[in-house]
Every structure is written in structure tokens, then in C-alpha cells.
Specification:
Layout lengths: L11 H16 L3 H27 L4 H17 L5 H4 L3 H5 L5 H29 L8 H13 L9 H28 L3 H17 L5 H17 L2 H7 L11 H34 L11
Helix pairs in contact: 1-8, 1-12, 2-3, 2-6, 2-7, 2-10, 3-9, 6-10, 7-10, 8-9, 8-12, 10-12
Length: 294
Amino acid sequence: MTQERNSCCLSSEETAKAAEHITEHKANRPSWQALLMAVNAGAFIALAFMFYTTALADGHGKLVGGLCFSLGLMLCVILSGELFTSSTLTLVARASGLTTWKQLLKNWGIVYSGNLIGGLFIVFLVMLARQYDAFHGHWGQVVLDTSLHKLSHFREGESWIRGFLEAMTMGIFCNIMVCLAVWVGFAGKTLTDKMLAMIFPVGMFVASGFEHSIANMFMIPAGISIVSFAEPEFWNGTGLDITHYQSLTVTNFIVRNLIPVTIGNIIGGGIFIGLWNWYLNVKATGSNGKKESR
């Protein structure tokens, strides 16, 4: 008897097969196109973090802020932005033999760089607009406190490796949720399906304080920029002590956050979600149509 096809969404096996083809296309996209789409995605995520910051500055909690942040991933999916955290799923295309390690790593590098450009461009606009003065300076305080917290995984009296593992694990948790949202979105057949699939996984990772490398490319540089360029009126008006934020430096951003979090994002999204679900639904069932090895 022929199994009735689910008209509402793809089955888990169909979703995994769809992931193969989607990630193949992502991994093998022309470099110039991947870069421009990555700049878009970096800007979308930065705008979503601005939405999160506004929610907190207006007195709402992290749960509301997290749900607001889901806008960023929605924009990336709907407008085909190339986001590094979801691009880690291209490990599925590599496991399926649909791309090469060289092409995959090249794509990751291009997308990562484009995301950074997009995020820093929004930081530039924030500083130009003096957005940190919004809500009587509370907007800027949220940015500063959030940025400082993201560097707090490395604590005095503990070994460097302990802090590295903490930041990396927070990155793993984050991209488990982000790539779950994207993977479930693969199963959706309408725009509404895909958008609804993203709201709660993304809301959970943001509300829980998990670490997203690309979002951090906006938030921490924004904090560094406020410390470096905000006028004395901002500090006087908010009553904040600038010396409290002196650890917000480019070096600390890269070493204490970006490197371990990026590694965690790769593990959480690419391995724990991408490869694991592909193995369960394609490889283990013998249904993979692997191309000739390259």
C-alpha cells in the first residue's frame, strides 16, 4: 500500500533530503554572490539585535527581546541571506559528497567575512545616529552591559581553558537552536510555516543568553564603539562609569568570545543538528543519492 504523502509539511526523511540539496546550493554558490548575501545577513542580524536592545531598554524582559530577535533569522531565510551559523549545515552537503572540503571552507570564509562587514556597517550607522542615547541612554547601557557579559566567560582565578570551554559550549547551545529552526523550516511548504518554525527556537537561545558569533559581531563592536566614541554627556546622563567597561577591547572580543563561540557554533549546528539528522534520516536508511566522490 502506497504511503499517503503529508500535504502539510515534508516528512523527516524528505526534510533531510531537501537539506542535502539546499546545502549543496549554498556551499557551491558563486563567491561574489555569497559575499553580497552574507553582508545582507550580517546586517539583518544586527538590526534584529537592535530590536532586542530596544525591547530591553523599554523595560521588557529577555524573553520578549528574544522573540523580537527572531526577525533576523526570518529576514535571512526569506531574503536568502547567507548567515554563517546556518551555513554550518553545509557539512551535510560535504557528507553527501555534493561538495568538497575546499569549496566548503572557502564558502565559510566568505560568508563569515561578509557577515562581519554587514554587522560593522550597522554599528557605524548606530554611532552616526547616536542611537545609544535612546531611552535617556538606557539603550546604550543595554548594549554595554550585554557586551561586557559576553566577555565574562573567562573569570579571574580560573584556567583559560575553562573559560574557553564555557564560551564554546554556549556557542554549541546557540547553534543547536538556530539550526533546529532552519532545519524545521526546510520542512515547511509556505512562508508562514518557515517563519513560525523560527520564533521559539531563536527566542529560546536569545532569552537563555547563548552565544551567536554573528550577532556578537554587532553587539560587542557596538559596545566597544560606545566606550571609544560616546560623548561625555552620555556618561554623565546615565551615571555610568566608563572605567567599568575598559575590558571591552577588540583583542578581548576576538580571544574571549569570537573564537570559542565560532567553534561552538560549528559543532552545535553543523555536527549536532546537520550531520546527526542527515545520518538518522538519510545515511542510516540507505537512501542517500551520493554523487561520485570528488
